[in-house]
Amino acid sequence: MSDAQQTDQPAYRRSAGTARGEARRLELLDKVTDDLADNGLTDYSLRRAARAAGTTHKVILYHFDGLEDLLAQALTRLRRRRVDNVLAAAIREHDTLAERIRRVWPVLADDASGLRVIDQAIGLAMYDPERYAHLATDAAAQYLDALLKMCPESWSAARKREVAELILATMRGFLAEWRTTRDAERIEAGMAGLIRALEREEAAE
Length: 205
Prior knowledge:
- By secondary structure, the protein is mainly α.
- It is built from 9 helices and no strands.
């Protein structure tokens, strides 16, 4: 990313607290989020964000606390879209957890849903954790919340958390495999193992 060091100051931000300012901020955020989903983080900068939003970098700084604040909010918004799609695909009454997870995978693996930029953000967190670790922890929190909602209501909170963490870690591995090798056969084999494990877990009432 460029422009980061000189644009992380909140000097221009004066729109908070008004309905009109918030509406404008969300409008800009949606456009920047769309650009990130389509083009990823390569060459991401304040000027690119401004072009995508059809405005100037000063207007962006009027509504956001710099480039990294804008990036964090756009990634959160993009993940929310993905999580909403996941829940829409997964949550059906009387389905088992295994059936829900089986339906989730195609949604998560869809490149059109912004998968590339999500992976790039995780890469930033791994490369420079002091600066970008929050991108990974925020992502984990959003997806974990969705997975907890998929677990059987009869389970204890501790059991839901254990299984949701297992699914999250496993699916992240599948996504990394898909992005780097496109080896569908290996992923299908791993998914079959995960589904069997979930079926056994649900049967152990």
